[in-house]
Write a structure and sequence with these properties.
mainly alpha; single chain
Length: 89
């Protein structure tokens, strides 16, 4: 017996499932933008550690925690590790 694999190719039939699919698509795009922006700030801090970059990093990470995008401990860990980078250079 063959089973149908649930992928993006299968279209929902129920109206609420169609709406959920639309919302998931927009949320995924929004989350990807936020994630990419956060990664760019972290990379920028790793490349050129400075007080200005660290301030923007803290701001971005705090906003990500506030909106439950990342966990508080992850933000704290990143801040700690990147502040050490700033202290060494």
């Amino acid at each position: 017996m063959q089973y149908i694999k649930a992928t993006e190719n299968t279209m929902p039939i129920i109206k609420s499932a169609k709406k959920k699919m639309r919302k998931d698509k927009t949320r995924t795009a929004h989350n990807k933008l936020k994630k990419d922006a956060m990664r760019m700030v972290v990379k920028n801090m790793r490349r050129t550690p400075s007080t200005e970059n660290f301030a923007s990093l803290e701001s971005v990470l705090d906003k990500a925690v506030k909106t439950n995008f990342i966990h508080l401990n992850k933000a704290s860990r990143l801040k700690s590790r990147l502040s050490k980078l700033m202290a060494t250079k």
